[in-house]
Amino acid sequence: VGDPPPLMDAATAATATAAAALVWFRKGLRVHDNPALDAARRSAARVYPVFVLDPRYLRPDPAAPSPGSARAGVARVRFLLESLRDLDARLRRLGSRLLVLRARDDVSDAVCAALKDWNIGKLCFESDTEPYALARDKRVTDFAAASGIEVFSPVSHTLFDPAEIIEKNGGRPPLTYQSFVATAGEPPKPVMEKYSELPPIGDTGGYELLPVPKLEELGYGDLSQEYIPPFRGGETEALKRMRESLQDKEWVAKFEKPKGDPSAFLKPATTVLSPYLKFGCLSARYFYHCIQDVYRSTKTHTKPPVSLAGQLLWRDFFYTVSFGTPNFHQMEGNKICKQIPWRENGELFVAWRDGRTGYPWIDAIMIQLRKWGWMHHLARHSVACFLTRGDLRAGRKSLHARKKRVYFTSDSTFSKKKKPNSKIKLFCFTSICQLVSDMKYIHWEQGRDVFERLLIDSDWAINNGNWLWLSCSSFFYQYHRIYSPISFGKKYDPNGDYIRHFIPVLKDMPKEYIYEPWTAPLSVQEKARCIVGKDYPKPVVDHEAASKECRKRMEEAYASNRLGGNPVKGNSSNSSRRKFSDGGQDVPDSSMSKQPRKRS
DNA sequence: ATTAGGTTGAAAGG
DNA sequence: CCTTTCAACCTAAT
């Protein structure tokens, strides 16, 4: 955890004098509640509002599985460009404009060049805690320091300052929601001062001032076949959408996230403000305080974690943990992540990614992701569980472990209840490794990558946090709870309207079969003009068998973690709290790096 | 060492 | 639409 950039209060910022200030927009694509923009306009006679197009983010990747760059699908790039156009329009209404720069390769080089070329005295930008941003911003602040340029970098993307919360919690990020909320307290109020004018931009020298580019100009090829998601980017749209959502006060007061309907698509069960929060078109603090206003006008309201305000706290929770956890975005070297020997690739992964698993509920969600760049939170759960720990595995039967009939438990309740006097054999780490190398369930990082690229609300901290959650790698550990790719969707949408909408080939399948079309008699398939295996794929796995197998594999992986058989760090100090009995039993393989630690 | 608690499972029963 | 059961996880707090 690096030191946060020093905060400057408004008074200090106001008295500071600099001939020209540069406001560097990255996230925070808004005018309201924008402390960086506020400080710039107060302290300088000329303000340069800048956005730098990042080739590392936008460069077309023809090898990608859908149009876009390696890191972003066109839906999110479109949303970004719409947000920039709206930001430009709003700045122009205040007598300014957005200066769109194109970096050759490294964004920080372009910013540093502008600072120098325009003789900037003060640089203002919103603090960003993502690793990519931290490295990028350090290059710029180092340059600024060396050049005597004042830097103001306030926290305004999140409700709280992640570094401050970590400090309050004794130097470690709170790892449970409850402890996070207790540590955090009440968030600061948004900065909502109204003003009608911004200082003009200064001389831009030889810089060519181009408008925000059109998506078609970025080289992604023919986009005429691309579906345009129903959500338009920008602060104006964000504020409108927020007001519409908050208008229904009863809905706000009674909101409970887990009770939402993931199949609702004509009118989604949530606000769909996440993409606006992701780009900072909407201030989380402003949203939070508007929600509080609604709560004050109603008799009762739901509470965190399920409430609407509670959702914003979840966002901050993941931002804080991700900021305070090295290698948060991966399994390796991530101290809070269970070490599970996932497989890296396979046909099953591609079937999942492309919505061809043969499970209409799963495929419809993945197609909605591809077309809309957004789906309901519970829909994300469903497909993430299916990919990682729920279903996608090979039907390999000859398991080394089962032949040997070893018990790998160190759980005292299990041994007491079921095998009170039995000799508990310890499962050795190498056996687990051998066994799991045949395993086909798929690494959460692969699913994470697909979401990260295609979601219009793709957010580094939240996306990784939720993949850790769903794969039972961190935060959540009840791996016996597996979403059924059949019954989970059916309970919300028994008629299958959601499936019919996103998978048109199934639109005439009777509702009795739409969640399991392979069970429909051939005559029914013919009548629906959808032959399973021809017009729509057969299921790639059998859910009953696969989920049972996956459950077992998770049990094995957890046992390995308990034994301190952490394949990455080899550090058993905090993972072997559990007591186990190993007296006189099979000696763990000598290649096991750490012996179980005896307690009692 | 023990216990309580955990945003979002499924199936069965009322 | 509610609760209970199922089989049972882990973590934090005590």
TrEMBL record:
GO cellular component: cytoplasm; nucleus
Cofactor mode of binding and number, as noted: Binds 1 FAD per subunit.
Source organism of this protein record: Aegilops tauschii subsp. strangulata
Gene Ontology terms for molecular function: deoxyribodipyrimidine photo-lyase activity; DNA binding; FAD binding
A Gene Ontology biological process term: entrainment of circadian clock by photoperiod
Protein name in UniProt: Photolyase/cryptochrome alpha/beta domain-containing protein
Binding site for FAD: 270-274, 311-318, 457-459
Family membership: Belongs to the DNA photolyase class-1 family.
